[in-house]
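Question: I have long wanted to understand how a fold can be written as tokens. Here is the record:
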Amino acid sequence: MILNLPGVCMAEGRGAVDRVIDIFEVFRHGQRPLSLTELAAAARLPKSSCHVIVGTLIARGYLYSLEHPRALYPTQRLLDVAHDIVAGDPFLEHVLPRLEALRDASTETVILGKRQGERVVYLQVLDGLHSIRYSAKPGDLKPLHSSAIGKALLGAQKEVSLHDWAVGQSFPRITSGTICDPEQLVADIQRGRSAGFFQTRGENVEDVWAVAAFFRAGRETMAIGVAGPRHRMQSSIESCAQQLLTTCNLVSRQLAQTN
């Protein structure tokens, strides 16, 4: 049986690193041991290539094999390695307490992100305190034009750079509320710059509203966002924005003192 799993790259000519990541993504979505044949099919890999990668992962302690039925599954080694890496992140060590305080004050999901090429990458996500909340994961990639954090990072640019970037761009429609016209997007970002924070209203995920603001971390520009369902954010967006701006100021000052 071939698993139809999301998030697995289907492009030809993938490099070795892509193939290893694809294998772990297959296990992430499958949530069960897989035979070599199933794994190769789900990862869109030739069985011979998959066999070589699996052999290396077993030898390094990242996969183990089961005899009956003959199948493969990851060990906890990858989790331990990732935990140790994150624990040693000096930036998140300073920022995380501020993000937690913002999450507790707003009760909504709080996200830290930065620009990576033409997208936003989420570096940290703290889930909101409600059962119904916006859900995301660290490592998620979002469009610049439809996410509040993306708008904040665009708004951090000089106005000339923003206009130059927007000219000739084709912005895909993510939801019915996405701003796809370059002039309208620039005008929306300029309004955010004047207000001191940037907003999305169902532009990236239907019925999810968000506010975001940017801050400087040395030579890096990053942004923090607060996101939640429209029925709560609609009435609390101003208070969330004020809490957000306070957090960005505190984080910026704290990082300046540590550098």
Remarks:
- Strands lie at 63-66, 71-74, 109-116, 119-126, 141-143, 198-201, 208-217, 220-229.
